[in-house]
Amino acid sequence: MSTLKKAKRMYEYSPDYAVPPGQTLREVIENLSMTQKDLALRTGLTEQTIVRIIKGIQAITFETANKLEMVTGVPARMWNNLEMQYREQLSRIKQAKELEQGIDWLQDIPTSELISRGVIHSEINKAGLVQETLKFYGVSSVEAWHGVWCDPKVAARRSDCFETQSGSASAWIRLGELQSQKIACLPFNEEHFKNAIQGIRTLTIKSPDVFIDEMRKVCADSGVALALVRELKKVPWNGASKWLSPNKAMILLNLRGKGEDIFWFSFFHEVYHILHGSKKELYIAEKNSIDGEEQEADSFAADILIPEKYNVQIAGFTSKQEILDLAKSLAISPGIVAGRFRHLTGKWTYFQDLTKIFDWTEG
To answer: Is the pLDDT of residue 68 over 60?
Structure first.
């Protein structure tokens, strides 16, 4: 935000009170030497109505504004403008109070990180920061945020981490949603997506600066937005997926762990959920999940990358050359074969130099 805009926000005057148009009306009729009873008689309104308008209890309607113009000579548009400004200010005051009540909620939201990523503005006061953060989430109140992100029915398949770190977790998911909204996709086509899977698998031998654009295009042509968002602290996930609309799905990935084997496994794990999961649920890939559907997604991803029949052979490897030869025959990156070896044997330090570490620049 520019210095000029910051200064404008800092010194912008916003009174914490609202002046009803009835006060102006009272001054006008006093100058006309007219009583409220006289005004009621001349306008055809009840005296009670006039009293309520002057106190700001009752709004000046378009019809009433026209009558006031006839009696006072003050244009109806002025009465309408005064009424609109009064109601707008009442709304601002009410909203300000609600925002003040939401300050404690900010403690769970990683606002500093969101500011550093440029997705929300730094504000001069906490209430303003609450408003900015609510805009980021696309909700009008803290109560609405809880309804979207903490509803037990919606959160049924979420991880324990989501329940304990809902602020950071929801922020990461929301960053993915916002990125996905900007990705133009064709309507979802299940058969097209199924047919594209093997083609996407061949991209594992390419570098990120090449495969990311190709991968996104193939996914978008099938109705799937691929969002790549850097991880947030306290969010230990490799991926997530959800439906943004009946015809558009999102696969969200980060590079937690930074290894190519983890990245590709996470992608195909989420592919399973898009093809076989519910359109009403948010799926989160969490390590060592005991959930049956998550385990099915793990098996699906593993088999897409390297069919299970190769596991015994891979577990017996003793040299890099064996990994390179199998990777070549399978048309897959050697780093993924090395990752499978480590997973099968528990020898986590072996063949690490064969697994590429991606340099993350997205999200």
So the answer is: yes
- pLDDT of the residue at 6: 43
Q: Do 171 and 109 meet the contact criterion of CB atoms below 8 Å apart? A: yes
CB within 8 Å of 112: residues ≥ 6 apart: none
Q: How far is CA 360 from CA 82, 252, 256, 260, 263, in A?
A: 54, 14, 10, 11, 11
What pLDDT is attached to residue 9?
Answer: 45
Say if strands 239-245 and 248-253 run parallel, antiparallel, or are unpaired. Answer: antiparallel
Contact status, residue 97 vs residue 103, Cβ threshold 8 Å: no
Is the pTM value of this prediction over 0.85?
no
Average predicted confidence (pLDDT) for the chain: 88
DSSP sequence for 301-317: HHHHHS-GGGHHHHHT-
The arithmetic mean of pLDDT across residues 170-186, rounded, is 95
- Give the number of C-alpha atoms closer than 13 A to the C-alpha of residue 150, restricted to the C-beta side: 14
Q: What per-residue string of b and e applies to 37-58 under the rule 16 or more CB within 10 Å gives b?
A: eebbeebebeeebbeebbebeb
Q: Which of 303, 242, 238 has the alpha carbon at shortest distance from 273?
A: 242
Residue 147's φ and ψ, nearest 5 degrees, are -65, -35
**Nearest Cα residue to 259 out of 362, 332, 336, 357:** 357
Torsion of CA 150, 152, 157, 158, to 10 degrees: 30
Average pLDDT value for residue range 340-355: 95
Q: Give the separation between CA 248 and CA 250, rounded to whole angstroms.
A: 7
Q: Taking residues 251-263, report their average pLDDT.
A: 86
- The CA R_g of the chain, rounded to the nearest whole Å, is 30
Among the listed residues 109, 229, 136, the one whose alpha carbon sits nearest the alpha carbon of residue 179: 229
Model confidence at 11, pLDDT cuts 50, 70, 90, reads very low
